[in-house]
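Anyone able to model this chain together with 2-phosphoglycolic acid?
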Amino acid sequence: MKKLIAGNWKMNGSLVANELLVSELLAGIKLAGGAPACDVAVCVPTPYLAQLTGLINRPFLSQKDDIAGKNTARSAIELGAQDISAQASGAYTGEVSGGMLKDFGVRYAIVGHSERRAYHGESSQTVALKTKAALAAGITPIVCVGETLAEREAGQTEAVVKRQLAAVIHDNGHCISEIVVAYEPVWAIGTGKTATPEQAQQVHAVLRAQLNAASSAAKQRVRILYGGSMNAQNAKELLAQPDIDGGLIGGASLKAADFLKIIAAAGE
Ligand code: PGA
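re: yes, here you go
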């Protein structure tokens, strides 16, 4: 299974900073041979999607294509959003639909990130509906699950992540093989604390078994990413675990050198 390294920029960036970061990433990828061994994506704040579509595709266009305004060449970096509406259109102030994201070449959408569950009251039911909306729009949802520190200490880790994933499986049964899952222990996000490779692998194996039981197609297809302070130093060991198929990276995705090292680690 080809690994996926996805950056989650969260609410960071500016027109100037994004241009610098993406040009450094593309230069680094080119220097390393131009075609990373893993899939690479950046999930950016909504207002910057149009800018990013231009930035990630431009260097791969020939001058002739550029003049003709074609935008068909595939970049080494794919575009992701950080959220998606459960609705297709209508009176939903502030929301952004899958169709709109698709207009800007979005390939992935993070769904149910713990920050949205905690600060925006997103329930597992909402997460399941957003997953469904993404799939309907032809966007791959990156469905996040993970336990809090209190839940881990109470021995509830497996029960919590299984319950979160079960809601998504329940509503998306037949197309569950089209999703990406991200295990993100809440206590490891942005804290510098990382799950040990063994702790992460243990939960990934549980999620893998749950996916396999839901769909035989999921076995070969569904990538389970680890997220929670993955960085240039620990990526290699985490990515070497049998059920860790990539990473969802916050802080370290904002520094080109670090993100490039994680991309390289995924190819080893
Ligand atoms: P972090 O964030 O890498 O900064 O811990 C990961 C995430 O929230 O997706």
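The pocket of 2-phosphoglycolic acid is lined by residues 8, 184, 189-190, 227-230, 248-252 (CB under 6 Å).
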